[in-house]
Amino acid sequence: MDKKKGKLTRKQKKNLVRILAALCLFVLVKGIDLVLHHGYGTGLARLLPLENLGWLLPFGLYLGIYLYVGFGVLRKAVLNIGHGQLFDENFLMTVASIGAFALGIYSAISSSGMSTEGFDEACAVMIFYQTGEWFQNYAVGKSRRSISELMDIRPDEARQKQEDGTFRIVDPAQVKVGDILQILPGERVPLDGIVTEGCSSLDTRALTGESVLSDVKEGDSLISGSVNVESTLQMRVSRPYSESTVARILNLVEQASDQKSRSETLITRFAKVYTPAVVISALILAVLPPLISGWTGNGFNWTVWIYRALSFLVVSCPCALVISIPLSFFAGIGGASRNGVLVKGAVYLERMNSTRVFVFDKTGTLTKGNFVVTEVQPADRRDLILEYAAIAESQSSHPIAQSIQSAYGKVPADTTAYVLDNIAGKGVQARGGHSILCGNEKLMEQFGVTGEHVGGAGTVIHLALDGKYLGWIRITDTVKPEASEALRSLNGRTVMLTGDREEAARVIAEETGITEYRSSLLPQQKVDELERLLASKKKGECLCFVGDGINDAPALMRADIGIAMGGVGSDAAIEASDIVLMKDDLRGLAVIQRIASKTMRIVYENIVFALGVKLAILALSAFGIASMWLAVFGDVGVAVIAILNAMRANRIVRMSSGRD
Amino acid sequence: MKSTYGIEVDCAVCAQKCEDAIKKMDGVLDCRVNFLTQKMTLETGDGDNLNALMKKILKTVRKIEPDFEIEGF
Predict the structure, then answer these.
(1) A513 in Cβ contact with A586 (< 8 Å)
(2) Domains of chain A, with CATH numbers?
(3) Does domain B2-66 have CATH number 3.30.70.100?
């Protein structure tokens, strides 16, 4: 529908021509009238040689222009009365403008044909209304396009290898798993897959919001949506298009705008009441004041009050609100996605704005999640300690066990000679050539070995050989470099949940500047702790849980907002969370907080502005200060301004910059 | 069963009214008329005759917005 080429649709062009032509004709008629009036003391009404019927000429001319420019509105109005749609915008506009003509006829007849007042206004109001509608339509279309275009990471084509070895351009949706594709420099990776030939750099800007080049070579996996920068690559497709990263992201973003925010639901409900309320008050305004004034002996003044009531009808459409609120959220979600943050619905932007408690999982979220042996004591027994530890941990794939294995650097020679017993929550006992104990202090206590008490950061693994204490290994996880900067910029409490010992948790908390921590939690206790935090927050505040999507799906789902880090390529994280930071960078939290607060500010601005102007115009019309012209501005002009304001939510926010 | 259609609707208030009307129709479990993306998402029972339903939907919404268009219908 929305073609990229050609800025105006055919309908828009047709309407624009119609409006411009009507405007020219109007200026012409009005001009002649003014010249005749001022230059010759006559006017259009005196051109016709008819007694008392001179008004017919200007009336006919203005009516002609009116019918020409307002045809679409009138047609819909007629159709809608047939369908009983009394509170339809077109119908109300028609009533208002025809009413204005009627008032003109009334004053013409009562002034024996000489007054032509009112016709020009009735006609101009329709031209003005159509112009406003046109701008509104144009602005919405343009906004919609510019948001979706920039979000559009959809690949248009794929170069599929044929049987004869040549490549042919096909639709990405037709490519099957196992097909070989070619990606030229500058092209987008159309589907997920693995590099089979060539090496190059990839730009993941469209996915993560930041232009970072990552090198890929044969055997590396490719994520669809990234752009090949350097040289030609060939890849084997590993997932069909419908399951590819790009297709999933696009789906999410599109569905995000289907979910209504709380403010949008409120506005929708309000809109249903607003129009009938204004129409009814217009009726009252047309009837009651003239009657009162008539009975009290001041004359009925029907025309004055009917004119004011007609102005009411013009401002009775809540369009400005109904369009601009969802558009603001849509723009905000679009802006977020360009910053590498996927938001799964407007409601999460709303909640993000009132989030005052940020709960973090430690491993993989605040820390990098790569464990490294940083200390072995006593140092002169380093090799011995690591060798026995490597034997004891040889069957484990836990990150801590792997860090010991990689620190040892060799494959332990005689693992087969040992029987390994896992002692839950404590460590491993290995029996064979020697008796090895490898685990925490509790394990040492259980077997009556007196070990050293070691404090400080990280995980400490103690080792005993044949009942004698050998020494210990310290394994630490590195805190992400941006963590403290990112946490400082958040507005609210920060809480870390970790399975670490109290001492180790404190070290991390100090390093990152996190305000609170809960340590020594077993995995299942994390959700319980989260429940407690949820219960303790103030009313109206929201709590968000930030995790890496590994093993914390229950917490992600339980929190008001679940935020998953580094979501590119992780199905589980995208599935379980409400907001996905595509890039593994904690500063994304501050970015999304800023986007959320900006979007909400714009939403409130639009509500206050649109309602404020409409109410003001209603009040002014009731007292006869505002003309119908102003009322038309209150309808379409306000809508256009609100739409333009909504678009501000789509601007890019830079990472790690100050508040805007 | 969920299906999505491209639509053409000019006014946001009408889009909302159409959505409400479609939701009340027989055979429609849920519906969302998205004015911004100009898309309609429809949830219907499995195995329903979609073509016939779409005709009915179109008839209903045109009573509210005479210019309502659904792509392919």
Answers:
(1) no
(2) 1-152 (no CATH), 158-246 (2.70.150.10), 327-361+481-595 (3.40.50.1000), 368-478 (3.40.1110.10)
(3) yes
